[in-house]
Amino acid sequence: MPYLANNLDLPHFCGLFPVSSCLRMGDDVCLIDVRYDSSLSILAHPCRFDGFLALFCVTGSIRVMINLREFEVKENSMFLYMPGNIMSVCDVDEASVDSLHFVVIAMTKEYMEGLDVDVPGLIEKRVKLMDRPYFFFGDDGRQVAEHYVSLAADILRSNLGYKRESVSALLSSFFFIAGGIIEQEMSMTRPDTRKPDRSHEVFEKFLGLLSEYHMEERSVSFYADKLCLTPKYLSRLVKTATGRNAPAWIDDYVILEAKNMLRYSDLPVKEIVARLHFPDPPAFCRFFRKKTGVTPVRYRKGEGGVS
Hints:
- The chain is globular and about 60 Å long.
- The longest helix is centred in the middle third of the chain and has 25 residues, at 163-187.
- A 6-stranded antiparallel β-sheet has the order 2-3-10-5-8-11. The chain has a 5-stranded mixed β-sheet with strand order 1-4-9-6-7.
- The chain folds into 2 domains: 7-187, Jelly Rolls, CATH 2.60.120.280; 198-300, Orthogonal Bundle (Arc Repressor Mutant, subunit A), CATH 1.10.10.60.
- A hairpin with a 2-residue loop joins β6 (61-66) and β7.
- By secondary structure, it is an alpha+beta fold.
- It has helices at 10-14, 39-43, 109-114, 119-124, 139-157, 163-187, 198-213, 220-226, 231-242, 246-264, 269-275, 281-292, 296-300; strands at 7-8, 22-25, 29-35, 47-49, 51-59, 61-66, 69-74, 77-81, 86-89, 101-108, 134-136.
- It is built from 13 helices and 11 strands.
């Protein structure tokens, strides 16, 4: 059984869904139209996609776990996923099974960077990975989004010339529309007149580094070095932003990775120890038991729950 929390590229990600649901353009972009089926049970296993995802929930609702946080993607909303995060689909509410319908636009980082729009700039003000990575369409927005999805699907199915350029232009336009909806949502809420909070800015950068390096580095000093801060100052800023100190966040990421390997792979504990850069199995077992209350072997057997 492969360890699904390893990076998935676009072909492997699309391979998690029925072929009939996917419209691909090479290995750069894919439009996936999904109603509830067995493919969602595959996504219940944590995975990490190395590109961008935009998940448009047409009807029903679905809960998505990103790293250590759970979000509910409701009807008429779009969820945005940034590269490198660990994601999984939580259990779907039985009441939503029949009505669940969502569309996923999956793109590689390289393809996204080639679009004629600053997508990170558009979403920075309102949609952040650790804050609120989704937004709602109004009635007008929903109609427009459905037209875009339908047109993109028609182009991808066709044998028309300049297909790549047409799809790129269409997606660029779509993300401008999405940016406008985000700005509109912001204008309907009370403006935030506070000065930018340095602790939150640093925390977001810390989280990005943690997502990238947690399997190799567990010391606060490593991340502080990367951010040109002292370990003490970094810990204080993280505590101010989240109420939890930097070592706790580091430990949680390591435990999340260890749980994923134990639960969703056949890797021997010795191999997991090596991948997580622990000095030896006893050190890893002590760490895991301290954080979870069970040994790695007992957790793998299901005695530590599924979380």
